[in-house]
Amino acid sequence: MKTRNLTRLIVSSAALLLVPASLVHAKEWHDGGTGTYIVTSSNSVAQPNGSTVVFQSFKGVVLSNDSKSILNLTSQSGAGTTVFDKDGNLVESNGYADGVDRDGDVFWIWWKTTPNGGTWGYTGGTGKFAGIKGGGTTKTLVNFPGDRWTISWEGNVSLP
Fold first, then answer.
1. What are the backbone dihedrals phi and psi of residue 50, each rounded to the nearest 5 degrees, phi first?
2. Fewest CB within 10 angstroms: 14, 91, 95, 135, which?
3. pTM for this prediction
4. Distance between CA atoms of 39 and 148, rounded to whole angstroms?
């Protein structure tokens, strides 16, 4: 009986050695960079209190500070709703976006922006982005004429 248990222990331990390290430990890293976007459609609705609700779709490109990051040079498409007060100041903006890399793999994010900055997080992905988790912060760097803007982003990324 003791020999049988010892054999099971040895076989189980040997099997664990055959499992790639990438399957045992998630890969985690900090990343950051910029994203530049342009509005592709927009609809504004004036509210009785003087505020305005703006529904927008946009497209853009994400650059990572690390040119080897899997997030570098991903294209994004998204949509969001923004509320401005009666004086045109940002109240809050929320939405979602997808990111697509050159291989066609996709990740999805949610985002929220307030006058104090923004937050974002992953909701999932396909291919190399399958199981992606994490999120971080954003800051608007510049608003260009013609509904174009650039943000800085940073955050933590985790893949299984």
1. 95, -10
2. 14
3. 0.81
4. 6
User: What is the spatial distance between Cα 51 and Cα 41, in angstroms, rounded to a whole number?
Assistant: 20
The string of pLDDT tens digits covering residues 8-58 is 444 444 444 444 444 445 799 999 999 999 999 999 999 999 999 999 999
Q: What does the radius of gyration of the chain's CA atoms come to, in whole angstroms?
A: 22
Residue 96 · residue 78 · CB < 8 Å: yes
Distance set, CA 7 to CA 4, 15, 43, 91, 148 (Å): 5, 12, 69, 66, 65
CA dihedral 154, 70, 95, 78 (to 10 degrees): 140
